[in-house]
Amino acid sequence: MKIYNSNFAPNPRRLRMFLAEKGLSIPFVDVDLAALAHKTEAFSEINPFQGIPALVLDDGGVITESIAISRYFEELHPEPPLFGTGARERAEVEMWQRRAELYLLFPIAQAYRHSHPGAKVLESPQIGEWAEVNRAKTLVAMERFDAALADRPFICGDHYTVADITGLVALDFTKPARIAIPESLVNLRRWRETLSARPSAKA
User: Fold this and answer.
1) What one-character-per-residue DSSP string does 96-153 give?
2) How much is the average pLDDT of 118-146?
3) What pLDDT does residue 70 have?
């Protein structure tokens, strides 16, 4: 079993943090995104969608997408539960995980890919107007997350979950995306600080 990884992309970081929270150690194979190693024929045989991370199982099977891989390890190692317990809690974790992914991580990534000089190799052509559209969307989402966090330590309540992982990775990606988190969003900033203090944040 091995995981194709990059230390410079947000989605592999989500998986590394998840594994760290589980206390799991899986061998990594680094993929050089700047050299477009994920676009090669060899890697395309592993993942035809040319994305990372990718988990290659001992029988040769492959699971891609960070959340799908995380679910696989959650089934194998259910403690601590990072996808929730019980029907309602699992549904709420799924809801906030999707919100963090769609309304924070995706637009932040789009702002980065379509504006940062270092992303030209990954996104051609870069569309500056699209970057600005997504910066605006991100700020709206941040306000909504800030409101939700007014009465809870984590985005789903009292317990740390995979939704918090996605949230932290998204907020940390604001720096290369050149998006400032407004000072007024005190709940969002407190949440980020709490998550950043966990050992898994350094994974």
Assistant:
1) HHHHIIIIIIHHHHHHHHTT-GGGTTTSSS--HHHHHHHHHHHHHHHHHHHHHGGG-S
2) 95
3) 98
What pLDDT score was predicted for residue 38? 96
Domains identified in the chain and CATH numbers: 2-76 (3.40.30.10), 87-202 (1.20.1050.10)
- Angstrom CA distances, 31 to 43, 44, 176, 203, stand at 9, 12, 20, 17
162-172 and 10-22 helices, crossing angle to 10°: 140
DSSP secondary structure string, 176-188?
HHT-PPPTT-HHH
| Collapsed DSSP state (helix, strand, coil) of residue 91 | helix
Token code pair at residue 48: 């035809």
**Tokens 């979950």, located at residue:** 161
Determine the Cα–Cα distance for residues 56 and 63; give it in Å rounded to an integer: 7
